[in-house]
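Q: What residues go here?
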């Protein structure tokens, strides 16, 4: 029987990936995707627990969905509500208690069991909670990945053993797990057969990936052999796991794009220590120097947290200094948010909210000016752009340059999915505009 599915995704690229895989898992049951909750028979919220704000969104969305579910019950067309992802993992019992409209709660490691869970719901077998860390990796039980288009994500690693003191990921996603190399290569070949020209390898600690004696550099080399695959990227990386051969891959692997998301979080050694990052600010600077020595055009991206407990004005200034000295093509920055169950949530000396807000503004002004400068530096250049999405206007396509620059241009639909040479004419706040180079 044909049924409809709407998945709303919060949080990181891993969640985006998981949502696509949930749809793959449910397709054999007859669930096809729709664009809005009010057209769906099953709504899944795939949630994020990384900061308080992200987690709160779930409960407000559940409030809206309750009204929809009640209306649908009156119409005699039931709506099932499921909550998955990291909030489900961390607060599963609380969700069931606080939100009686929720039928199903499942964690990031159990969504391969969705067919059984949903079948039980359909049989009226009550409200379900499954937030195990099962001994069997879910990846072994997922069907082949559905087509993703020219730019595809492939999860190769999950979980985290680093235990940064602010972070919920080790608790919500569990211990580090690396998928076997051959499985990854097979999946990559399938994605390329389905039209992928670029693959981004995903993992919470993707550069910690190693399996059966293979390093990530060797995996990237093997992936680069796949005919038709033109670009490789990987994200997110920890500075402590940038091995010599992975640095070397940025020189030797012709398909590896000159862009690296390498979060540093802070420029203060005292704060980095309190965060349990395992490196200081100079370690990070030296690492960047080594990367740029082998790949001078490498563009860097980072995450920053402002207002970690005990962060003084001098500590904050050290973050600004690090940003100024390294130079980032883009960055993400966040106010520290205490997360239940993490060591940092117990620390004294919280930074007042107003100070956090003011520091975030100052830090964002600096990273925005660096991001704009990076885009401006592209004007006049010819960049290879993978056209992977429709443009803003009819007759346009858009895509990304080597360092993730969003580029818009007039191009015929026949060029969709190809890497084309684009002469960059203008830079805007967050994107570039250009034309096909003759
Ligand atoms: N508060 C604020 N930001 C956080 N991040 C992770 N945990 C927290 C927290 N408790 C940020 C980090 C990480 C990114 C994904 O989210 O910068 O790299
Ligand atoms: Fe959010 Fe982390 Fe879970 Fe991704 S892994 S959804 S960032 S809590």
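A:
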């Amino acid at each position: 029987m044909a049924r409809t599915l709407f998945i709303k995704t919060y949080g990181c690229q891993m969640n985006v990936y998981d949502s696509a895989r949930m749809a793959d898992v449910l397709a054999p049951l007859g669930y096809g995707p729709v664009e809005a909750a009010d057209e769906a028979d099953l709504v899944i919220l795939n949630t994020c627990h990384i900061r308080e704000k992200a987690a709160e969104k779930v409960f407000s969305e559940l409030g809206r969905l309750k009204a929809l579910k009640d209306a649908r019950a009156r119409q005699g067309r039931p709506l099932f509500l499921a909550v998955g992802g990291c909030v489900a993992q961390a607060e599963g019992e609380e969700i069931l208690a606080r939100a009686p409209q929720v039928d199903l709660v499942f964690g990031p490691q159990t969504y391969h069991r969705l067919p059984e869970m949903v079948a039980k719901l359909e049989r009226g077998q009550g409200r379900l909670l499954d937030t195990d860390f099962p001994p069997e990796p879910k990846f072994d039980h997922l069907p082949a990945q559905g087509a993703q288009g020219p730019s595809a994500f492939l999860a190769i690693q999950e979980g985290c053993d680093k235990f940064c003191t602010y972070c919920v990921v080790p608790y919500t996603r569990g211990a580090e797990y690396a998928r076997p190399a051959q499985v990854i290569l097979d999946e990559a070949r399938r994605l390329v057969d389905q039209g992928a020209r670029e693959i981004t390898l995903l993992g919470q600690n993707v550069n910690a990936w190693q399996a059966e004696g293979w390093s990530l550099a060797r995996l990237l080399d093997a992936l680069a052999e796949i005919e038709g695959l033109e670009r490789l990227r990987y994200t997110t990386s920890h500075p402590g796991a940038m091995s010599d051969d992975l640095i070397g891959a940025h020189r030797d692997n012709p398909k590896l794009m000159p862009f690296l998301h390498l979060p540093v979080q802070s420029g203060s050694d005292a704060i980095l220590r309190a965060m349990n990052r395992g490196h200081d600010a100079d370690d990070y600077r030296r690492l960047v120097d080594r990367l740029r020595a082998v790949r001078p055009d490498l563009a860097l991206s980072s995450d920053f947290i402002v207002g970690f407990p005990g962060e003084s004005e001098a500590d904050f200034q050290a973050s600004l200094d690090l940003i100024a000295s390294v130079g980032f093509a883009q960055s993400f920055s966040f106010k520290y948010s205490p997360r239940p169950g993490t060591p940092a949530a117990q620390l004294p000396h919280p930074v007042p909210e107003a100070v956090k807000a003011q520091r975030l503004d100052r830090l964002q002004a600096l990273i925005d000016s660096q991001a704009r400068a990076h885009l401006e530096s592209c004007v006049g250049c010819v960049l290879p752009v993978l056209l992977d999405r429709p443009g803003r206007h009819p007759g346009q396509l858009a895509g990304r340059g080597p360092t993730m620059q969003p580029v818009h241009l007039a191009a015929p639909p026949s060029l969709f999915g190809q890497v084309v040479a684009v002469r960059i004419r203008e830079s805007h706040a967050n994107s570039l505009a250009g034309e096909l180079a003759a």
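A: Context that may help when evaluating the design: Residues 50-51, 166-167, 263, 265, 303, 305, 334, 336-337, 339 surround 5'-deoxyadenosine (ligand 1) (CB under 6 Å). The first strand starts at residue 3 and ends at 9.
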